[in-house]
């Protein structure tokens, strides 16, 4: 028997100014994260610091339990949550592989970061040292490719449906293994927000030990253990354990690249994460034309995105839109 997940639309999260997040330390010449602000693990903090002139010192270390929690996604493989099977299984493989990276276990699904300092050193067998048994990962990237045999020139709306199905699968899987962690789905456009809300509202969950936790699933609620789906501007000043950022487009919508590759927008979305940021993007965004990069502001945004890509664990995900 299955239970339909409820979804509600509530008011926007409170908006804070950028000064609420950071303070300058003149004595050390660095940017120090406020101690009462729990956002940004070391790898995420180092990435964000690429746009500041001073070194960034995060005051947080990722708990090693997160790797163990994500491993529980394996228990749901083969279950039907009312989501496209191929997409759900791919997302489960992605999360389990991230768990293996965090636990310093072998995996073959993820491409490691190209930035050398982002790759964990090899563990020493038999060592009980915490640093050798856990590797914190805050940056991950899904390269999304949508396609259709029925139409080679499918519209942006069809692509958004595929993107939303991936986001909903991530939400369902993360909520199953980390029911007390908040989740943000950050979207540049309202059409993406509505598509994700629709996809989440259709999730069917098995009744069981975690069913009570899922009954608390409400979109647009920023309390602990809730899921918030909203535009990036409305999420500014808030934070969540997991942040899913939707920055993918189809080939037919490349005119939107200037909007997506705005550095401030990317920074606000990515830096909402307390534990893990999952950036869903596409080759059209990661490899824009020279013409697009002729704009100075767009070029700055692209450089910021490229810095993220270089530091993230990456996964390839193909979505057949004909199966949605």
UniProtKB/TrEMBL annotation:
Domain DNA2/NAM7 helicase-like C-terminal: 29-283
SUPFAM superfamilies assigned: P-loop containing nucleoside triphosphate hydrolases
Signal peptide interval: none
GO molecular function: 5'-3' DNA helicase activity; ATP binding; hydrolase activity
Organism: Crucibulum laeve
Protein name from the UniProt record: AAA domain-containing protein
Region feature Disordered, mapped onto this chain: 1-25
Pfam families: AAA_12
UniProtKB keywords: ATP-binding, Helicase, Hydrolase, Nucleotide-binding
Segments of skewed composition (Basic and acidic residues): 1-11
């Amino acid at each position: 028997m299955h239970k339909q997940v409820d979804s509600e639309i509530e008011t926007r999260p409170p908006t804070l100014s950028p000064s609420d997040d950071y303070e300058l330390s003149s004595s050390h010449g660095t940017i120090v994260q406020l101690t009462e602000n729990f956002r940004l693990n070391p790898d995420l903090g180092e990435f964000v610091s690429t746009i500041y002139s001073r070194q960034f010192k995060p005051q947080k270390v990722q708990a090693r339990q997160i790797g163990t929690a994500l491993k529980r996604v394996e228990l749901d493989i083969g279950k039907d949550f009312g989501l496209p099977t191929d997409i759900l299984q791919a997302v489960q493989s992605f999360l389990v592989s991230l768990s293996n990276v965090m636990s310093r276990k072998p995996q073959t699904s993820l491409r490691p970061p190209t930035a050398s300092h982002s790759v964990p050193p090899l563990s020493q067998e038999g060592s009980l040292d915490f640093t050798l048994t856990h590797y914190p990962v805050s940056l991950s990237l899904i390269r999304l490719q949508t396609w259709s045999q029925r139409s080679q020139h499918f519209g942006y709306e069809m692509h958004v449906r595929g993107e939303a199905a991936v986001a909903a699968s991530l939400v369902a899987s993360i909520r199953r293994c980390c029911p007390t962690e908040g989740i943000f789905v950050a979207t540049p456009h309202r059409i993406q927000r509505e598509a994700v809300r629709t996809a989440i509202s259709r999730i069917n969950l098995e009744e069981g030990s975690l069913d009570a936790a899922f009954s608390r699933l409400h979109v647009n609620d920023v309390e602990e253990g809730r899921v918030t789906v909203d535009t990036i501007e409305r999420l500014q000043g808030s934070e969540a354990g997991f942040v899913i950022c939707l920055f993918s487009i189809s080939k037919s919508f490349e005119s939107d690249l200037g909007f997506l590759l705005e550095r401030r927008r990317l920074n606000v979305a990515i830096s909402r994460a307390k534990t893990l940021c999952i950036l869903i993007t596409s080759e059209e965004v990661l490899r824009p034309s020279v013409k697009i990069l002729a704009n100075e502001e767009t070029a700055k945004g692209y450089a910021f995105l490229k810095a993220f890509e270089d530091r993230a664990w990456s996964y390839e995900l193909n979505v057949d839109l004909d199966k949605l």
